[in-house]
Amino acid sequence: GVSIGPFCTVGASARIGDSCRLHTGSHVTGHTELGEGCVVHTGAILGADLPGRTIIGENNVIGNYAVVGVKCQDLKYKPGDECFLRIGNNNEIREYCSIHRSSKSCDCTVIGDNNLIMGSCHVAHDCKIGSN
Prior knowledge:
The protein is mainly beta. It has one domain: 3 Solenoid (UDP N-Acetylglucosamine Acyltransferase, domain 1). The chain is built from no helices and 18 strands. The chain has strands at 3-4, 9-10, 15-16, 21-22, 27-28, 32-34, 39-40, 45-46, 52-56, 61-62, 67-70, 83-87, 92-93, 98-100, 109-111, 116-117, 122-123, 128-129. The chain has a 6-stranded parallel β-sheet, with no helix packed on it. It has a 6-stranded parallel β-sheet with strand order 2-5-8-11-14-17, with no helix packed on it. Strands 3-6-9-12-15-18 form a 6-stranded parallel β-sheet, with no helix packed on it. The protein is globular. The model has no long low-confidence stretch (mean pLDDT 97). This is UDP N-acetylglucosamine O-acyltransferase C-terminal domain-containing protein. InterPro entries: Hexapep, Lipid_A_LpxA, Trimer_LpxA-like_sf. Pfam families: Hexapep (PF00132). GO terms for molecular function: acyl-[acyl-carrier-protein]-UDP-N-acetylglucosamine O-acyltransferase activity.
């Protein structure tokens, strides 16, 4: 029940859950897990070919050209560190958002369940956002 549109990329280590829809030109790379029922809109980029992991729960909507689970913008980041992002269930992440992985192996950027991350927002490394 997975739908992958034209010009999409799904990396060798990526995992796509049942009933997910990837729209044209969206990309899921690196050690990224996409839960059941997620929708990834045109041009969105999920994950990166870096050590660490991006885990996205079920029934999330990722907007056009959002960038989720990439390397943090922190000068203290050391190349090769495993960094993490965990997103819960039922979130709507709107167009042009950026959400970065943690800046160090002992931490994790976290977004809970049932949130609206409005267009063009930035969730920086190591942030913790609850639910609702």
